[in-house]
């Protein structure tokens, strides 16, 4: 429907020279066998605001033989002082670094916040979208400086490691959660050759315009978690030419054809932001290699299994290998066939039920499936309500916990929804009692 024409806006902003970029190595200390380098970095000046970040590099003693680093894009506040090196995220990063013998870096304050009279997170993004849609400037979308923050972090990591250790880092795997997962996708979309793989976490909204329609069909309203956008009418304004141009800049789906690097997508089955089957609107359209990791009974977060799968993915990318390959097919008779190439894999069928197609508070339960490198199971359509299914294949991991790779979701009945949608006005239409939309 839309012609995506704004790709260049992202790339031109990221590549634009900014004399305010700078960094200072504040200190180096030892943390359980790794050298922690604490860096104060200025990534840019955006809309007259100087963006400052803490950047922590965790460098194991034996990392010099690795030319790849894992960059974790994190949040935080401008009000925070020096990062806590005893925090769970830093300790997990240190553990992954030691086990993969690679540099792990954690970038904080993406985005810089609070901004614009105390706004944070989605409040800022929605505010900047409103500015862009009102024609107040092409650089307003907050994702532009968020991506530039990640790119400048890669620059800084390379320079610091070269200057202090004579260690050359050439490749990066990027990861981050929620808006930082969004940043991860879009940093890869710049086609920076240093980014060789990504692992976005709990950002399940690619193909954004269709996602908004799907939310209305399932919930009758938009998730309260995206209320900041709803208040400013952002979803409806996506239908305008300017809205289409905004999507061409900030929706990773618009860059899908060029997104050929390995992708591990980590999601929660009960994430309150999205619908249970949001990934079905985009996953199939991205080129391989690509992997799904659903975390059952999990919201907008990452679990130990998600972390273990991410660490295994990083190790595989480092060694120019692949994760185990799984493939699946849903038949018209609602049978799912799953095959995997590693004989150590064990398959499980996960299921949850909902009387209104809202699975955010549903309980997921699993049964082990029989089969060596292949499993086939018939999915049941409930007489009332809806059931959601996916198959998980677990493999032994190198980090204690098993790794988890999953199929897409299947919601049955697949052709019925509790609401219809007025697409032009982007609003739900109640369905008469006893009937459901089949659109």
Describe the structure.
The chain is an alpha/beta fold. The protein has two domains: 7-324, Alpha/Beta hydrolase fold, catalytic domain (Rossmann fold); 327-430, Sandwich (Immunoglobulin-like), CATH 2.60.40. The chain is 26% helix and 30% strand. It contains ten helices and 19 strands. The chain has helices spanning 7-15, 88-100, 122-133, 143-165, 179-189, 208-219, 227-231, 234-237, 241-250, 304-318; strands at residues 22-31, 34-46, 49-60, 68-73, 103-107, 171-177, 195-201, 263-268, 290-295, 326-330, 335-340, 346-354, 365-368, 374-378, 386-399, 401-406, 410-412, 419-422, 427-430. The strands form four sheets. Strands 1-2-3-5-4-6-7-8-9 form a nine-stranded mixed β-sheet, sandwiched between helices. α4 (143-165) crosses α5 (179-189). The longest helix has 23 residues, at 143-165. The two termini are 18 Å apart. The model is unreliable at 1-5 (pLDDT under 50).
């Amino acid at each position: 429907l839309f012609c995506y024409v704004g790709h260049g806006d992202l790339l031109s902003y990221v590549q634009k020279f900014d004399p305010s970029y700078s960094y200072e190595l504040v200190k180096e200390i030892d943390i359980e066998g790794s050298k922690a380098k604490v860096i104060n970095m200025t990534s840019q000046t955006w809309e007259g605001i100087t963006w400052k970040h803490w950047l922590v590099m965790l460098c194991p003693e034996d990392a010099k033989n690795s030319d790849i680093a894992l960059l974790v894009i994190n949040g935080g506040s401008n009000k925070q002082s020096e990062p806590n090196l005893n925090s769970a995220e830093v300790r997990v990063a240190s553990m992954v670094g030691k086990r993969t013998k690679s540099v792990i870096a954690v970038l904080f304050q993406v985005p810089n916040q609070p901004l614009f009279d105390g706004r944070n997170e989605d409040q800022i993004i929605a505010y900047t979208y409103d500015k862009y849609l009102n024609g107040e400037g092409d650089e307003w979308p907050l994702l532009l400086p968020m991506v530039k923050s990640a790119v400048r972090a890669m620059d800084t990591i390379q320079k610091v490691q070269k200057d202090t250790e004579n260690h050359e880092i050439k490749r990066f795997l990027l990861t981050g959660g929620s808006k930082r997962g969004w940043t991860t996708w879009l940093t890869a979309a710049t086609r920076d050759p240093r980014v060789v793989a990504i692992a976005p976490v709990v950002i399940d909204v690619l193909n954004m315009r269709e996602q908004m329609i799907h939310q209305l069909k399932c919930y009758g309203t938009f998730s309260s978690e995206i209320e900041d956008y709803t208040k400013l009418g952002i979803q409806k304004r996506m239908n305008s030419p300017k809205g289409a141009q905004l999507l061409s800049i900030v929706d990773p789906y618009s860059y899908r054809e060029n997104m050929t690097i390995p992708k591990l997508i980590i999601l929660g089955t009960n994430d309150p932001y999205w619908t249970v089957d949001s990934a079905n609107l985009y996953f199939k359209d991205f080129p391989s290699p690509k992997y799904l990791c659903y975390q059952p009974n999990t919201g907008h977060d990452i679990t130990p299994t998600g972390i273990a799968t991410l660490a295994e993915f990083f190790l595989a990318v480092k060694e120019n290998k692949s994760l185990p390959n799984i493939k699946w097919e849903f038949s018209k008779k609602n049978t799912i066939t799953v095959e995997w190439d590693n004989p150590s894999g064990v398959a499980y069928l996960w299921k949850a039920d909902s009387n209104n197609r809202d699975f955010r508070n549903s309980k997921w339960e699993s049964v082990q499936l029989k089969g060596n490198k292949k499993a086939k199971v018939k999915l049941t359509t409930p007489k009332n309500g809806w059931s959601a299914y996916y198959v998980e294949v677990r493999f032994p991991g190198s980090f204690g916990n098993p790794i988890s790779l999953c199929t897409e979701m299947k919601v049955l009945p697949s052709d019925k929804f509790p609401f219809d949608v007025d697409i032009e006005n982007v609003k739900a239409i109640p369905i008469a009692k006893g009937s459901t939309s089949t659109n």
